[in-house]
Design a protein that fits this description.
six-stranded antiparallel sheet
Length: about 950
């Protein structure tokens, strides 16, 4: 790679906090950009490298095409050479919708719909026979091939005309030249008809003496018979045997008609293919009695229906229920546990006259869904269960009649990826041997599916079924799917920009990922990825490290640090040993069975750091989010999240009584994006912006000119710049060049008017404050406890480099996770113990960032809080107090408890998968001593 043309060069990069650096990436190789969080990695790879490659591609298109494509901001750069067409694979932090499945987010669904619409055969589910539509030509050929020995009588059954006036219909046929009709098995003239309806009669079309040698006449007769019979004809042979044929998809035995295969028919998003009961969602909402009546020892008199206990109309509804109970001779003092089946049916369904029951009350809440309080109240007391008609398959029942190699599309989607790939290979091979026309249509689709499914298998997701709901997938499974969708393409000489592809992946999955990335490079592509994982960094061909710090302290090219050296530097102190035998306080969850969890007994020490690990899809996120979180919410607050499972599935939670470590609240922190827009900045998100604006409004100049706190908002007219409306930039539509952002010429990007900027607080105006880092602002606002407290929490979590005016849309994954935690810690009363549940807190963080985060976790534990964390980061695993491993694989083969105990002993556990990688990574301890010691 010594040739100049073999290097991608970026010169004078000044995007965001990058300091006019020059970088090179060798083509056809794997390059890694690493560094601490906020050092400028994403700015270099995505805001500069990918943005420039994308812009150059757009310039090759016509102006008409460009106006329909996304426009990226122009990077601040002097020169970029040897750029290739680029693909960006960013972290997908948002959770997919309830209607999404593995098939839809991988892109497998559209090719399968096309294949079934082109190749599926129709089999009547009731009669178990194939339904073949006939044309006059195909039916004439079949009759000729059968070589009948005698004449054939072509008839047009008139049953499909039964709604027409019979005498008027006969007159029309006579006017068209027909003169014979067959009634009750006898042929007579039309005017001699003895029937009064068309239900049992056939119009005689023609009598063919020699079908084999008179094909033209036969085809004309068949065509006319189909027309007169409205797609239905009957043929009599010389032995008076009758044979029915249909021009459309209609069963000859039961007369059931089916639609012609189409793309929309095989979609649960379209009315033609969706189950009519659940409208294609696969689930229905039913009342959850465990939530509506949490205490069976209560009664109507004791206000035991939680559903009715909220809102100003609670007393009114209870009076209606009590009055209905008296009419039905059910004592309102009767305990719910003593209700008979008839009583429960009355309570739930009502009496179908005046009393509407629980279901009627839920229907009333549904009618007021435009009001959020009613919508939230209703959702709390419903449980989502599989649709009873489609069994969660989402498709209408008639879709099972359309089969390919004996398998309907809903059945095909239930297969694991590995089995599905093998079946599609058989279908493709059979198609190539039979009808070449269909091969030309679907051959390319089969090759596309083969590559995508093979990539999913290579990434370790072969156990997933395509009908699996996307919202039930773990972060690692979602990451594999998004990677497979992009990496399975057959592109060459392409630039792939990846954003932490190892995020949410177990060490064994990272090995499979590294092999896939190597395969990409071997086919002539260039891979540049932002990464912190030491294993992926060590296997890269080229490494660029940015730093040395974050924010303004970053943006420089730094010398690469060997992973082992970084671990040694971070782990200078040995962690304090933890003895499970002597610890008195434990949280226990017995028998969780949500999804594929295998009813094990989970335990975690209170006041300590517990880490849950295991391969992707083994049940970690299910245990944390679907079992632990609702169980703790139900026990501590009495209000579990609305979409939680029943108590029987989430398991039985046990907490110690009268313990100083007993949590009083529970908090969950995940990877979902922050709520905000391009006007949302750090100060507004921390909810302290109002306090700062009020202080500015108290200044003498502000009071003299009549400026209130609202005047210092860039969301309101007055103090904000009128030209850019408080954004700091103006977006110009240059038509052929797309939208271009330019710094506002009036405010120079300061976002406020000169009048607002003339007000100073302790020597700084509002723009100066927005440019301050959180660390500097902590000192500056020391006299404002509310502001200083929020900034102190942010700084303690290693985010002191962030500027107060930085927009929320520019936050990295690691910054989002820590900001959420900071927001919780700011609102939480530190004197009361809490349980923190964190899903992948190491995502987007370098070892130095994780070291600072772990110190803060230790501080929280020393204050009596408990931490339960799902992570794959080997250093966090080794640094935990207590470790649980689920496995051994993903999907149905996972959900088993392989190990629980201290991290030191997992290395000796023979059936542990994680222990083998911890043994290899001998420098993966980031933990320092316990601050409380």
């Amino acid at each position: 790679m010594s040739s100049e043309n073999a290097m991608i060069r970026l010169a004078g990069v000044r995007t965001h906090n990058l300091k006019n650096i020059d970088v090179e990436f060798p083509q056809g190789c794997l390059s890694v950009v690493t560094g601490v969080s906020g050092s400028g990695k994403s700015s270099l790879v995505f805001s500069t490298l990918y943005s420039e490659a994308y812009r150059l591609y757009l310039e090759s298109l016509s102006g008409f095409a460009r106006q329909h494509l996304e426009q990226l901001p122009r990077a601040e750069i002097d020169e970029a050479t040897n750029l290739a067409p680029a693909i960006a694979i960013r972290q997908n932090r948002g959770r997919p919708g309830r209607r999404s499945t593995v098939a839809s987010i991988t892109g497998v669904m559209s090719p399968l719909q096309t294949i079934y619409a082109s190749m599926a055969s129709v089999f009547c589910p009731e009669c178990r026979q194939q339904i073949i539509p006939y044309t006059p030509a195909s039916l004439a050929r079949q009759l000729a091939d059968n070589k009948p020995c005698g004449p054939l009588i072509i008839l047009a059954p008139l049953i499909r005309w039964k709604d027409r006036d019979w005498h008027q219909l006969l007159q029309q046929f006579q006017e068209q030249g027909f003169n014979r009709i067959r009634e009750h098995g006898k042929i007579r003239r039309l005017e001699a008809s003895i029937l009064s309806s068309a239900s049992d009669s056939e119009l005689v079309i023609d009598r063919i003496s020699d079908p084999a040698n008179d094909q033209m006449r036969l085809q004309d007769a068949l065509k006319l018979a189909f027309k007169c019979g409205l797609g239905f004809l009957r043929i009599l042979d010389d032995k008076s045997r009758s044979f029915d044929f249909f021009q459309n998809l209609c069963c000859q035995s039961c007369q059931t008609e089916y639609q012609a295969p189409s793309f929309a028919l095989f979609s649960w998003q379209h009315p033609a293919g969706a189950c009519p009961t659940c409208q294609g969602s696969g689930t229905v909402s039913l009342p959850d009695l465990n939530k509506i009546i949490p205490d069976q020892r209560s009664s109507l008199a004791k206000r035991g229906l939680c559903l009715l206990n909220s809102g100003s109309a609670a007393e009114h509804w209870y009076s209606l229920f009590e009055a209905a109970a008296r009419k039905t001779d059910i004592p309102i003092e009767r305990l719910f546990k003593d209700y008979s089946e008839e009583d429960y049916d009355w309570l739930i369904s009502g009496d179908r006259q005046e009393f509407i029951g629980i279901q009627g009350y839920l229907s009333w809440l549904e009618s007021k869904q435009h009001l959020s309080r009613y919508r939230i109240q209703r959702s709390r007391y419903l449980q989502h269960s599989d649709c009873p008609d489609c069994k969660g398959g989402r498709f209408a029942p008639h879709i099972h009649a359309y089969r390919l190699d004996g398998t309907s599309l809903p059945e095909l989607l239930r297969k694991p990826v590995s089995d599905l790939r093998q079946q599609l290979q058989k279908i493709a091979a059979k198609d190539r041997r039979t009808e070449a026309g269909k091969s030309r249509i679907c051959g390319e689709l089969f090759r596309e599916l083969e590559e995508l499914l093979s990539c999913l298998e290579r990434l370790g997701a072969g156990y997933l079924s395509l009908d699996r709901k996307a919202d039930s997938l773990s972060g690692g499974e979602l990451q594999k799917i998004h990677l497979a969708r992009c990496l399975s393409s057959q592109l060459t000489r392409t630039l792939y920009c990846l954003d932490e592809p190892s995020s949410a992946l177990h060490a064994v999955d990272r090995e499979q990922l590294s092999a896939e990335l190597r395969r990409l490079c071997q086919t002539g592509n260039t891979v540049v990825m932002v990464e912190h994982d030491s294993a992926l960094i060590s296997m890269a061909d080229h490494t660029i490290q940015l730093g040395p710090g974050s924010g303004e302290a970053g943006g420089y090219l730094s010398h690469p640090v060997q992973p082992a050296a970084a671990h040694r530097r971070s782990g200078q102190k040995q962690k304090v040993p933890f003895s499970p035998e002597s610890h008195p306080c434990w949280l226990t969850l017995s028998g969780p069975s949500v999804h594929h969890l295998k009813k094990f007994n989970f335990r975690a020490p209170l006041g300590k750091i517990t880490v849950i690990c295991g391969p992707s899809g083994s049940g970690k996120s299910t245990l944390l989010y679907h079992c632990l979180l609702p169980s703790l919410q139900r026990t501590l607050t009495g209000t579990p999240k609305p979409d939680s499972f029943s108590d029987k599935k989430t398991g039985v939670l046990t907490l110690p009584a009268n313990s100083p470590l007993l949590p009083e609240s529970v908090y969950f922190v995940d990877q979902s994006p922050l709520a905000g827009n391009q006007r949302s900045v750090l100060l507004t998100w921390l909810n302290v912006w109002d306090t700062v604006r009020k202080e500015l409004a108290k200044q003498e100049r502000a009071r003299h000119q009549g400026m209130n706190a609202g005047y210092f908002s860039f969301n309101r007219a007055g103090g904000r710049c009128d030209s850019c409306l408080g954004l700091g930039f103006i977006s110009e539509n240059l038509s052929f060049l797309g939208d271009v952002r330019m710094t506002c010429p009036d405010c120079q990007g300061k976002r406020f008017s000169d009048k607002a900027l003339s007000v100073y607080y302790r020597g700084k105006n509002i723009h100066d404050m927005m440019q301050m880092t959180a660390a500097d602002a902590l000192v500056f606002f020391k006299d404002l406890p509310t502001v200083a407290g929020a900034l102190r929490t942010v700084t303690d979590l290693g985010l002191g480099y962030m500027r107060l005016g930085q927009t929320s849309s520019s936050y990295s994954g690691g910054e989002i996770q820590r900001l959420k935690l900071a927001d919780i810690l700011r609102k939480h009363d530190s004197d009361h113990p809490a349980c923190f549940l964190l899903d992948e807190p190491a995502s987007g963080l370098a070892d130095e960032d994780i070291h600072a985060l772990l110190l803060h976790f230790r501080t929280l534990c020393s204050a009596g809080h408990s931490m339960i964390i799902v992570t794959h980061h080997l250093a966090l695993l080794r640094s935990a107090d207590y470790l649980l491993e689920l496995g051994p694989c993903g999907g149905d083969q996972g959900g088993q408890l392989l190990y629980q105990g201290t991290p030191e002993k997992i290395i000796k556990c023979n059936h542990s998968i994680t222990g083998k990688f911890l043994q290899k990574d001998s420098f993966s301890t980031l933990q320092t001593g316990d601050p409380g010691k």
